[in-house]
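Issue 218. Parser rejects a valid record. Input:
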Amino acid sequence: MNKLIIRPAKLPDDFDDLAALCWAYRDLLITRTTHVPDMVERYYSKSDYAMLIADLPRIHERPSGDILVAELEGKIVGCAMYYKHSSGPCEVKRIFVSDAARGHGAGFKLLAEAKKRAALDGHTTMVLDTVHTLVEAIALYQRSGFSPAAPFYDPDPAYIKTLRFYDCPL
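Output the parser choked on:
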């Protein structure tokens, strides 16, 4: 039986694997937002996304954030990260697992660990946004205690029908 381990990322050692997962997440968004083809480019243009990935260790630094990875058979197969959003609550971002991790509960375990650590860091609410076409992710969020919520930022009106917002008390 394969043992799945959820742990904090060891940076810089895990950075390349983490970056690869983030790029795979962006690729998934491209395939799931064909009805709004400019959305990913607007929020995650290649150059802006490359800069964002390079800045992840700072954005999610302790003590108000963290980067978690899922490891299966010694390979990093998933990630989740959180930080204090400028509007106040803790936001969880880039929850993604590779195909190799599917069926192992990696997404659920990553999100549970992120919630646990965020609560220990003093956060009282966790928020997230997603797109309505990521139905698997939405099911995960709901199983993990998240409920539909009002936007925690001012979304671009062009994408309001595509975006979904959730929150969860910690």
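Fixed in the parser; the record now loads. The longest helix spans residues 15-32.
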